[in-house]
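REQUEST FORM: STRUCTURE PREDICTION
Request ID: SP-0412
Submitted by: Lab K.M.
Chain count: 1
Length (residues): 130
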Amino acid sequence: EVQLVESGGGSVQAGGSLRLSCTASGFSFDGAEVAWYRQAPGNECEKVSAIASYSTYYADSVKGRFTISQDTDKNTLYLQMDNLKPEDTAMYYCAADYASPAYSSILELPMSKSGLLGYWGQGTQVTVSS
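STATUS: Completed
RESULT:
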């Protein structure tokens, strides 16, 4: 059974930092395409960042503040979030799958096709206060 488990969320003040982790079991991040998504109440789900074939994607809203990385030895995906803003408040999810002919790359995968990704975590809450 594949499980993705996020951790590292919490409550911080604006300007603070958090590092989210996503650890996989039953699934290897080595060679996989992986991403962080977030959803705030009343808002649509948004792809925050992704890694595929050593290339990365960042949403414009987080560029320069968030850094995605992965440790294949620990089979863990990270999202370092610095200079957090209240608008970053959301539930954060990691998602992963291997490359698929159904889409070109997770980097370019539109939200409408995010359901094609096979594995999702349960999420970790991030709350940023002003």
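NOTES: The mean pLDDT is 95.
Reviewed by: T.R.
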